[in-house]
Each structure stands twice: as structure tokens, then as C-alpha cells.
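Just wondering, can you check both lines?
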Amino acid sequence: MSDGMRHELKFYLPITMIDKIRPLIADHVHHDPYCADQPNCNYTVRSIYFDSDDLHFYHEKLDSVKTRRKLRVRTYNTHQTDSIAFVEIKRKFGRVGYKDRLMLPLELVDHAMNGVKPEVVLGDNPSFRDRSVLGKIRYLLNMKRLHPVVLVTYDREAFLGQRDRTVRITFDRNIRSLLNPTMEQLFDEKSLVQFEDKHFVLELKFDEAMPGWMAGLIRKLNLSSESYSKYCTGIDAWLQNPDNEAGAAKALEFEG
């Protein structure tokens, strides 16, 4: 599927701010149903990001290129026999984002990425949209010679607007990563390096105009939006601060 235009604002904040934000949003949002029945109302997001040997997407972000793309495979929580994954091309134009998204059984993701016939990946009667998204994914993979670069995992508490369900607020914390992952390591926890524990990432998302109460939240707490990338920071956590011999070896392997 291809999602429409989304406005996204990110804020990198001390973890103690969560308790200040909760009462200010309580009358306007409710928990996302995907996290309402999870422990502490958090679910786990697991994403493998793809990039080229020269880290084209990574450097685009560091250089603040206004129009850019990234490719990732995303799944959630723990591995199940019926686990679903999303293969996504996320495009950004400043603070506006678009997403081309293909939902697949986890077992078919490798087929999607490796050129297996579309009918094997999508079934005998795929929609035009799914076939188009699969074509875009494969074109980008081949054009940039992309491969898995980093796994980024974090715990997310998500809220939806009570009046407008396209309005979304998320708290992302306990952010951790692994360099050079394989697809089999999507659910890996033992090898991850945690790089955010005293801070969290607040994301505000909406389709059209920002709701007045959300603008009021920003003003009341004097929040300043930041260009924060979990992808780039997940790489930097290994390259800049490998915390043990295994981490140092992984960073050297990554740098070639």
C-alpha cells in the first residue's frame, strides 16, 4: 500500500518529560489498540535499514538533504509462526513524509528482496498497488545496491487522536541497535547495544493541519523540533562508542 502525505515532528527529550506530557494529552488521545493490551502499554518495533556500501542514505540525512529516501523492513514484538513484516520505502520532503508499504508474511520478505517471481511473493492476483510497490522496492535495491546495514529496536507507547484517528503521538524509548544484521536477527536481543536510556523520542504525526491542542502542547512545554534519526544514531552508537571488544570488532567490520 502507499500511504498519503504525513507531517512529522520529532522531539528528543529527557525521559522524565513523559510524566509531564501524559496529563496534557489525556483528554485528546487514547492508546493505540496495538499497545493497549501489551505490558506497560508498550510494543516493540524492530527495523532493519538498508543502505549502500558508501552509506548514501546515511550521509543524505547527515547533510540535511531535504528530499531523501530510505528502505527498511519492519516487524513487531516477538517472533511468531504467523509474524507479519512491512517492507517500506519512506520518502521525506522536509517535515512531510510519504510511505510506500508492502505487508507480507515474514517468511516471504527474503523472496521480495531477492527477485523471486512476484506471484510467489504477492499471490496469484496481486493488486496493482502491491505490484507497483514491489517494483519500486526492487528497483531501489538494485539501483543503489542496497544491503542490511543496521537493526534498530525500541519500545513504543502509541496514542491516537480521539476525534481524528490520523493524529498520532508516540513515545519511543530503550532504543538499541546492531550493525550488519541478517534478516534472521530481526528478533535478536542479546547482541543489541542500547544507546538511549535517559532520553526518549516524542513524535507528533498528522495528515493535514496540526490540532490546536497539539500546538498548545508544544507551546506549553516550549518544545523545539529536532531532526533526529534512529537510523543514523543506531549506526553512530557502534562507530563512535563501541562498548566492548565485540562491539569494536563489529564497527571495524562495518567500516570495511
In short: The chain has one domain: 2-255. Residues 2-255 form a domain with the mRNA Triphosphatase Cet1; Chain A fold (CATH 3.20.100.30).
